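Check this:
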Amino acid sequence: MGRRQVLRWMSAATAAVVLGAVLIASAVSPTQAATPPKAEVKASFLRQASTMSFVGAGSTFDLPFFKAAFKAYAQSHHVSVNYQGLGSGAGIKQFTANTVDFGATDVPMNSSELALANRTGSPTVQIPVALGGVAFAYNLAGIGRGELRLDGATLAKIFMGKITTWNDPTITRLNPSLKLPNLSILPVHRNESSGTTYITTNYLTSVSSAWANTLGTGKIVSWPTGLGGKGNPGVAAAIKQHPGAIGYVELAYAIDNNIPYLKLKNKAGAFVLPSQAAVRAAAAQFPHVSYKRFSIVNAAGPTSYPIAGYSWVLLRQHPRHDAAALVQLFHWTVTSGQSYATQLNYVQLPTAVQGQALQALNGIK
């Protein structure tokens, strides 16, 4: 090999070694291994920043609807909602204390509750969000859904402890075709401040003077007998566990737990099973509701179910953060989100009530 050829070979070999060293160094660069490209860092930060979280508490009446609706909303809007079903009374308390972004209650806040809440924050806005019926569910072997029939006066006597066995003549006269057992009745009720209790006792007050003059209407009443349960889930569980039990739950809980529920005599004298159609018929008798005039129990009409009511969301006129996103959430809930309500045996908000809700949302700044 000549000198010129040797030099050319050495030059090529050196270049190859240098190039290999550069490639190896770039492959194991600690800076590049530990730090993602700037574009990826920025995109990750934006994804995290675009996710908003809201916290709510209150009505267990709303809980199945809210769980389904908020889950669907989160999938397309990057908004997470942590809603705790603690009862309407607890929802009002937490809203007043500003520990949640919104509360929910089956009975709107009264004047004293509003005055207290408005002292702890900006003015309160109350928005109808759900419409449903309250079923009286029972645990009687061999007696299925709708086979048992009762009227309001008899229910009042049961929950006052004046009728104590299932074969009492007052019950058997209403159910001549049933073989009712000589079994003790266990009334099951809520043991905390509850909007479902308010709707139920509001109905009993409207049909029984004895009830009206003693226990009356309220989120909490002094039950003279029976067993208490925590929330609609607790009442449903207690009914299932105790033969002879009867209790009141939002219709979705009776259906989901496969508990039979009775036909109730309405104002027109017809025995009606709670259903979407029967609750819709009741609501149609009260086309204009407000947080001051909200009761729709004991409605007229042959197909109306007599224990029905609206549930309400509590918001601040000036929310503590992300006001636009919070308004958008509940704008969707009272419009498109109502499809999730109907899937769970609630009733879609009537057009006039939906319009009222949207108008109230427009007042939030």
